[in-house]
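WARN retry 2 of 3 for item q-0093 after timeout on previous attempt; input resubmitted unchanged.
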Amino acid sequence: MPSTASAELSVVRVVSAVLAASTLFFFVLTVSSLADHSRYVIAHWQTVAAIAIFGLPLVVAAAARWSSLRAIRIMHGGYAIIFTAVVVSWIPAFINGPMPADVAPWTVGIVGLSTASAAVAWRPPVAWAFLILSSLGVAPIRIIADGGADVSLALQFAFFSITVCAVFTAVVMVAMNAGREVDVATAAAQSSSMRAAALTARAEEQAHLDALVHDEVIATIFAAAGAGRSNSESTRAQAARTIERLRELHEATASVPELIHSDYLIQGLATSINETTDAAKFVVTGARHAPVPSTIASALIEATVEALRNSVVHASIDSTPVERLVDLRLSPERIDITITDDGRGFDPANVPTHRLGIVVSILGRINSLPGAQATVWSQPGEGTRVRVGWQE
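OK item q-0093 returned
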């Protein structure tokens, strides 16, 4: 997924900025004690340790604005390791002890910064293990600092550190998990839209095929039948053009999945209706969870589009508006679509034989599919009703 579209990446960048701000806050609280603690460690250790612990989060937050999710995680993991190394390095750097009982090395009081970074960098089991080990590691440092005077106090401090760090870690994990869930939902929505678009494209291409059959294929056949009385060059050119369009249609529909969810049927049907006419009401009742063969879904959409197209072209009476309704009914066993209008209607017996929209695109195509049925009813002045359906 592109980084610009990742909610998790956005969350990690925000977490990086919050950790940087927290680091500055802890630095303000700690700076007064740095000078006091300097007499207990070797020269320059304090300076190097402060730069590493308080400076690196600022660098990470600044770099995160232009970095990928993976790069930011690596930087946070590096900071957690460096932080731990600094804490451990306090032991060989410790001199002139013991420290007073009410004073502790300043590094052990801000372990939460490293555990929060670990939550960004690593998977939860690793991050929680790091938290426990880092917090328990505080105990021996406290024991060394005060000369082993009060072991129980050191253990209490370690368990207190676990509790505090767990809060930071949990907040970071919850935020990142929310970002991942948003990304998953976004990917699912995009996939749904792509599938619906593919189904709609297939229906549109089939509609193009219907027009092609009506216009070019039939015309080509008629021209070939009368080749002795027509221009053979024109006939060959028309045939070549028709074959090329059929090839394009095959390539365009080859990638549609074999089975689709009924939601994709609804989306594809709604899109096709809106593209055919803005004067039709679309109603969906019932529900279906089982998948639908894409060939069935495409055929139903194509028949619906053809019925609406015929209604738009032929149903109007002067300037009187025509009401059109597409009623989709879903059930575990069936899918039924009824297309009605209150237009002028017609007598099916009087439909010219060269008008193939109803005969081929609706009745012929639907009734040729396993489990599918199509009927057309109309009377002059009574409107038209087309029903197409499929049953498993």
